Amino acid sequence: MANKNNSGFGKGLSSGLGVSLHDILKKYNGVRANGSVASSSTRQARRRILKQVFKFLLKRFPELEDATKFKERHVVALAELWEKQNLGASTIQTRLSVIRVFANIWLGKAGMVRKTECYFSDPALVKRDYITKVDKSWSGNSVDFDEVLTKIRAMDTCVAIAVEFMRAFGFRRKEAVMFTPHTSDEGLLVQISRGAKGGRERKVPVLMESQKELLSRARALVTPSQSLASHNRSLKQALRRFDYVMTKLQITKMGLGVTGHGLRSEYAQNRIKKITGHDAPIKKSLSCSDADNELQARKEISGELGHTRTAITNTYFGKKKK
Asked: Highest-confidence range of 37-41, 148-152, 198-202, by mean pLDDT?
């Protein structure tokens, strides 16, 4: 009989399959593959993807009554479906990453789920293209940051200063909202831990007077124990408020043509120019000569943005033409 404490999780699944999948998630979903604590968004994404996966598999393999009986033939069936659906490379990679953790680690079937390209007729179908073709920065879309910031500040000072941190330090939205200026400011560096994607802590250099001035204003805005999500708001409320303000002021792709996330591109583009003396590749219409220190600059910037792969910088400021 299905577990009554399942909170509707098993809907669309057989009782046995629903209970077994629920039990596996309950046991393992709180931990990332590297052993660190999984964020709420990671847990929710895994739960959603795995439920979707097993709902499909139950239709294709009605005899599948236990999630622990998951086999590679099921992966093959899923890949065939996704290829027919023409899903994007990023979506496929994300889904298979979850399945790989589920089978290889949670079920203890090490190596069962192979590299993504092994399951598709053309490896190019699942190759992510990290090279941006469009400038996502605010300046690159003729958006006056100071003008927009004034409007944000008139609606909500906490949202406004979070936006300033996104531009000045390359923070993500959640990182900015959860930032604690009194405890995370180390003088020459700021530490980002709360809200960091994937739990990857990092430190970002404080190089300019404008950054120091921003930190000073942030400390004056909140108490020593508070984050920028102050005003008695929970994290969920603060994130909703951030999104509301941005939408209300049309800081969206459909509105001004940019999003808050575009400020990370702004940060990355400013940093590559500061380090190398060259504009970001996305700013140039012609090929440019290699800067001797560009590779090192990309490594530094990717780390400052909270990424481990240097190639990810291509999504923020492009790549030189050959």
From this structure: 148-152
What is the rounded CA–CA span in Å between residue 303 and residue 6? Answer: 40
User: Cα–Cα–Cα angle for 70, 73, 76, nearest 5°?
Assistant: 115
Residue at token pair 């380090």? 275
Q: Which residues pair with 192 in a beta bridge?
A: 202
Angle at 278 between CA 268 and CA 176, to 5 degrees: 15
Long-range contact pairs involving 39-46 (C-beta distance under 8 Å, separation at least 24): 39/197, 39/198, 39/199, 42/198, 45/94, 45/98, 46/98, 46/101, 46/102
Hey, what are 3's tokens? 């577990």
- Are 280 and 266 in contact, with CB atoms under 8 Å apart? no
Q: What are phi and psi for residue 27, nearest 5 degrees? A: -80, -40
Q: CB within 8 A of 9, min separation 6: which ones? A: 18, 21, 22, 47, 51
Question: Residue 39 carries which DSSP code?
Answer: P
The dihedrals phi and psi of 31, each to the nearest 5 degrees, come to -125, 140
Whole-angstrom Cα distance, residue 198 to residue 214? 26
pLDDT digits 0-9 by tens, 66-124: 999 999 999 999 999 999 998 888 899 999 999 999 999 999 999 999 999 899 888 77
